[in-house]
């Protein structure tokens, strides 16, 4: 889903205030940064585990309703600004790791949450997994069907599929929901005991630290970076400590947590979302792409592998 579209629709949402404790480690000593003069959002920070998140968020019901406005053509427009070759390479790398962790087994089932156009599930099917998944967008479901992948339309909480899947994957989904703990409980529910969960989620990086410094010094006036990284499209940015605290609190057994350089959208589209004009986009895109190709840019995501305990 196009994050700028979510931002434009933000005023249509009914927002609610999140628990004043940190949603990952439950610390009550959270700090609030100045209100953004551009977006009106307030970011909170947990000094204990490092998580940053929005203090007010839309309801899941409003997000699900908004997702229904993304028909096939709108969703295809979003797919067209992704770094397709890089996305495929990332999918293949993760799928190889999943295959190693799950091991040889008959009828291995993989459920992809927020499966989009079904690209990862198509790859998993070719690798011998029985594919399943869901998405909130009609357009995503239609595109996935064109590649032979049948997705369930709707929220995971409404899907009656307890303990059925060897693997559950979430590609940049956790940051998109208002209540990450509830989502991760639902993931545990659909995993079989001993099953593997993989998620990619946006990570608080050095780029974000610089952006927040400008945000704080200007009392919420210089917020292009913080508004781009934390908004209705990314409601939380985790650290390795915060994602570990959240998952262990919910009963997961951590396998590994790893930072990566992984940018889904083209550099030009990122720069456009930050307000750069076409001239500057052309100037900056090439050197940034060179850094990305060498894995030298900001490590912007976390890869997390964890298991449902056998006795859970």
Tell me the layout of helices and strands.
Blueprint: H1 3-9, E1 15-17, E2 31-32, E3 43-45, E4 52-54, E5 56-58, H2 60-67, H3 72-80, H4 84-102, E6 109-113, H5 119-126, E7 130-135, H6 138-146, E8 152-153, E9 165-171, H7 180-190, E10 191-202, H8 206-217, H9 224-229, E11 236-237, H10 240-249, E12 253-260, H11 267-273, H12 278-293, E13 301-307
Defining key terms:
312 residues; alpha/beta; Rossmann fold; 7-stranded mixed sheet; 4-stranded antiparallel sheet; globular; disordered N terminus
Task: Give an account of the 3D structure.
With 312 residues, the protein is of the alpha/beta class. The chain contains 12 helices and 13 strands. The two termini are 34 Å apart.
Alpha-beta content class: alpha/beta
Which fold name corresponds to the CATH topology?
Rossmann fold
The CATH class: Alpha Beta
Rg, Å, rounded? 19 Å
Mean pLDDT: 90
Number of contiguous helices: 12
Query: Strand order across the biggest sheet?
Result: 8-7-6-9-10-13-12
Low-confidence stretches are: 1-12
Counting structural domains, the number is 1
Give the DSSP E fraction (strand runs of 2 or more residues): 15-25%
Q: Mind describing the biggest β-sheet?
A: 7 strands, mixed
Count of individual beta strands: 13
Give the proportion of residues in helices. 25-40%
Distance between the termini: 34 Å
